[in-house]
């Protein structure tokens, strides 16, 4: 039995997945309570991703955790030391192109045999754990908050995504109103301004390798989209 760190609600129904970049669908798994699965092979082992509600992804992946010799103990004390180190290591890795933003580990599934590192005397354990990641997908409807307004459009934040661009071209009916605190407004007096919550659809996303983060393009051209 794995060590429970945090547990989410039941995911949705399995539909399709990707293996080595190629899509597949499996009618035999339609009843499984997961909506999308992605499995990729990495040098360190397997990475399983299960699509939860909207942008959240449940992942199962390997990790190497290093424990100082003085922290070594048996049973739950060892598990506790590993979990603490895992949380620290997970927190320093901001995001990956495949998985999105790394939010938190949830369940420690397995602890492998420890190996002593000769240079430091520390003990390295291979572990497998479940975790939660956050990644936007094209076509999803998302809520965001405006934090910059320009004549050409606005920038929003949503979860760990800091750069979501909504062009004025993708907000039909809205006109730019300049001033000390500029905003966009339509004929119904609906405003898109700093601090406004906006429901938008994701047009596309882009991974920035140097910054280790994502950008996204948004649109409110559609039904039930716009300021909330």
Automatic annotation (TrEMBL):
InterPro entries: Rpb7-like
Subcellular location: Nucleus
Gene Ontology CC, one term: nucleus
Annotated keywords: DNA-directed RNA polymerase, Nucleus, Transcription
Top-level division of the source organism's lineage: Eukaryota
Statement: the UniProt record of this protein carries the keyword Transcription: yes
GO molecular function: single-stranded DNA binding; single-stranded RNA binding
Name under which the protein is recorded: DNA-directed RNA polymerase subunit
Function: DNA-dependent RNA polymerase which catalyzes the transcription of DNA into RNA using the four ribonucleoside triphosphates as substrates.
BP term (GO), one: DNA-templated transcription initiation
Species in which this protein is naturally found: Arabidopsis suecica
């Amino acid at each position: 039995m794995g060590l429970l760190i945090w547990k989410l609600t039941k995911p949705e129904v399995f539909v399709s997945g990707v293996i080595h970049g190629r899509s597949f669908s499996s009618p035999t798994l339609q009843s499984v309570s997961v909506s999308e699965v992605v499995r990729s092979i990495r040098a360190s082992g397997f990475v399983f991703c299960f699509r939860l509600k909207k942008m959240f992804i449940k992942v199962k992946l390997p990790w190497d955790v290093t424990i100082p010799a003085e922290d070594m103990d048996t049973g739950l004390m060892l598990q506790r030391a590993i979990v603490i180190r895992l949380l620290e290591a997970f927190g320093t890795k901001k995001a990956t192109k495949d998985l999105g933003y790394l939010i938190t580990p949830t369940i420690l599934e397995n602890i492998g045999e420890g190996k002593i590192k000769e240079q430091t005397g520390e003990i390295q354990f291979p572990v497998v754990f479940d975790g939660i990641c956050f990644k936007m997908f094209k076509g999803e409807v998302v809520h965001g908050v405006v934090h910059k307004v320009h004549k050409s459009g606005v920038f929003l934040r949503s979860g760990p995504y800091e750069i979501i661009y909504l062009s004025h071209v993708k907000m039909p009916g809205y006109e730019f109103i300049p001033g000390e605190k500029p905003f966009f407004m339509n004929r119904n007096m609906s405003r898109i301004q700093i601090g406004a919550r906006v429901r938008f659809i994701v047009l596309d996303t882009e991974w920035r390798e140097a910054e280790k983060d994502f950008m996204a393009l948004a649109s409110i051209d559609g039904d039930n989209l716009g300021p909330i």
